[in-house]
Write a structure and sequence with these properties.
The structure holds 2 protein chains of 2 kinds. Chain A is about 40% helix and about 25% strand. Chain A has a 4-stranded mixed β-sheet with strand order 4-2-5-10. Chain A has a 4-stranded mixed β-sheet with strand order 6-9-7-8. The longest helix of chain A is centred in the N-terminal third of the chain and has 20 residues. In chain B, strand 2, helix 2 and strand 3 form a beta-alpha-beta unit. Chain B starts with a strand and ends in a 10-residue tail after the last helix. Chain B has a single domain, classed as Alpha-Beta Barrel (fumarase). Chain B has a 5-stranded mixed beta barrel with strand order 2-3-4-5-7. By secondary structure, chain B is α/β, with parallel strands linked by helices. Classes of the chains: A alpha/beta, B alpha/beta. The interface between A and B is large, with 52 and 46 residues.
């Protein structure tokens, strides 16, 4: 059986934390450029120019592109034929976060929800594990800022609400969020399953290559319709008015109960940060 | 878009009165950082009649929690945070003399009313453009609430910080009018 020392996971997580906070993926940069080409509002155009310039400065200066370096969400896809040795997996991931946030001069934003006392090292991470076939380990690190996370919503719709109900719920969520989540947005949407499954799918949808449609044509159609709908709100970049409120809509679905229609919308700002590695 | 207006702090009331929503501003001078936790303390101290660690009269507060400064730098990345979370505190600070709020996103009706009442302004930076904005911060020093970490109050000296007027002294709100002209949703 293949073995991986958990120390390697710590090193990988530390590096991915830093990388994800300093650089955006080419997919997201391409969407920002496309938004700039499509945006007709003066403010929208100005904002998009500033955001593209900001990416260059972050890279040159080696500083985070956004000061909110987020709560660290880590997805682990663990091959069922893989044996992790040398320590506690959760502690290995958290040690990676601790090192990455310290060495990368990233902001420590994590605290107790009641006392509001900061842990001062951005731990603990939010860790999602999935057991998959094979003997590899895929680590995805996705720091999530609060501006957009705070505007995310989940609703247990009635089956009778149907597709129209889903669209209206997403639209209401984007309208209520307005300028707060730093549009232009990427919307991660989870439809189906149970309450927690819908929320998790909404987050997972944000890991998809930005702007890539769902492989399921029916879902891809709904993604296109929702994107067109939210771009009629006029919210625009930074909420100052414009055509591009969202740059992409990613939907994940799962079978649900005959009596349920859970829908979760995870709002992502333009700083759609995630980095992956396969060990 | 408008020509850029230069504002030197401390701002003169006449200068603020001339600002209109949608105008671009380059702000230079001394501003103070404060976000959620610092606002809670400031307001509690104000209500208790205790002295505050910073002056409010004619001053500017920037809603920000910067990333840590690298060696040799005054500050890390420092874009504005969502202003709406400060809405429950802002009217009291405005009534105590605060003239400029710097953040991102829309404000409540109460904040708009308090801004108008006190002839203050609300300026927005570009959320997420934190590396770009950090280039305009020339000096940063800790003032108080050190235990709050990134949420502590700092005194920043800024030079030509790029901002947009979002609420003016007349109480006009850019977020109410900006998106309206691009809205194509059927009613």
């Amino acid at each position: 059986m293949r073995e991986i020392e958990v120390g390697r996971i710590t090193e990988a997580v530390a590096e991915l934390c830093i990388k994800s906070c300093l650089y955006l993926g080419d997919d997201v940069v391409a969407l920002l450029r496309k938004a700039k080409a499509e945006e007709s509002s003066d403010f929208g155009s100005y904002v998009l120019d500033c955001l593209l310039e900001n990416l260059e400065i972050a890279e040159q200066e080696q500083i985070p592109l956004c000061q909110d370096t987020g709560m660290t969400v880590v997805f682990l896809e663990i091959g069922q034929d893989l044996h992790l040795v040398g320590g506690d997996l959760t502690e290995a991931v958290n040690e990676g976060v601790r090192r990455g946030y310290q060495e990368g001069y990233l902001r420590k934003s994590v605290l107790s929800p009641l006392s509001r006392i900061n842990t001062n090292d951005n731990t603990p991470a939010v860790i999602h594990t999935k057991i998959v076939p094979g003997d590899q380990l895929k680590i995805s690190v996705a720091p999530k800022g609060a501006g957009s996370e705070n505007m995310s919503r989940l609703k247990m719709l009635k089956p009778a609400d149907g597709l129209e109900g889903i669209k209206q719920f997403v639209l209401e969520t984007v309208l209520e969020a307005g300028a707060s989540p730093c549009p232009p947005l990427i919307l991660g949407i989870g439809i189906g399953g149970t309450m927690e499954k819908a929320a998790l799918m909404a987050k997972e949808a944000l890991l998809r290559k930005a702007g890539a449609p769902s492989p399921d044509p029916e879902v891809a159609q709904l993604e296109a319709e929702i994107l067109a709908l939210v771009n009629q709100t006029g919210i625009g970049p930074q909420g100052l008015g414009g055509k591009v409120t969202a740059m992409a809509v990613h939907i994940e679905t799962y079978p649900t109960h005959i009596a349920e229609l859970p829908v979760a919308v995870n709002i992502q700002c333009h700083a759609a940060r995630h980095q992956e590695i396969i060990l | 878009m408008s020509k850029i207006k230069l504002i030197e702090l401390p701002a003169q009331q006449e200068q603020l009165d001339e600002l209109t929503i949608g105008e671009l501003v380059h702000l230079s001078g001394v501003i103070y950082t404060a976000r959620d936790a610092a606002h809670k303390r400031l307001v509690n101290q104000l209500k208790a009649g205790q002295p505050l660690p910073i002056p409010l009269k004619n001053q500017a507060i920037f809603y920000v929690g910067p990333s840590p400064a690298k060696p040799g730098r005054g500050i890390g990345s420092c874009g504005p945070t969502t202003s709406g979370r400060m809405d429950s505190y802002a009217p009291l600070l405005l009534d105590a003399g605060l003239k400029i709020m710097i953040g991102k996103g829309q404000r409540s009706a109460e904040v708009i009313a308090a801004t108008k009442r006190n002839k203050a302004v609300y300026l927005v930076g570009i959320g997420g453009a934190a590396a770009l904005i950090s280039q305009t911060v020339k000096a940063a020093e800790l003032v108080d609430y050190a235990d709050l970490g990134t949420e502590a109050i700092h005194r920043l000296t800024v030079e030509k910080m790029p901002l947009i007027v979002a609420i003016d002294t007349k109480g006009n709100d850019l977020f109410a009018v900006g998106p309206q002209q691009y809205r194509t949703l059927p009613d």
